[in-house]
Amino acid sequence: QVQLAESGGGVVQPGGSLRLSCSVSGARAELNVYDWYRQRPGKGRELVATIVDGGPTTLVGDAEGRFNISRDKAENTAYLYLQMDSLKPEDTAVYYCHAQDRRNHYWGQGTQVTVSS
Description:
The structure is a single chain. With about 120 residues, this protein is mostly beta strands. The protein is built from no helices and 11 strands. Strands 2, 4, 5, 6, 9, 10 and 11 form a 7-stranded mixed sheet that branches. Strands 1-3-8-7 form a 4-stranded antiparallel sheet, with no helix packed on it.
């Protein structure tokens, strides 16, 4: 089993920055795709950024140029990050960490990001 746990959310003013972290622990040897999703108020869950093991990173929509996805590998616990700069009120959402292998999808519990003056 794989466990994902996000942290780093909070309230930030427009134009500010936040760094979200996601700890990835458990049976993670076969995980090969890691993503950040978000769910804005009243909307469905949407992909924000993807990192493929040994492959490229992808930023979706207006995340490109403002956000960056990265990953640290460690023996026991790996971490997935989302650096968010130049935040806008429309970035307000619950942000979810996601990982998958060939058979399973794993989700964290989400962390709230609120961009407001």
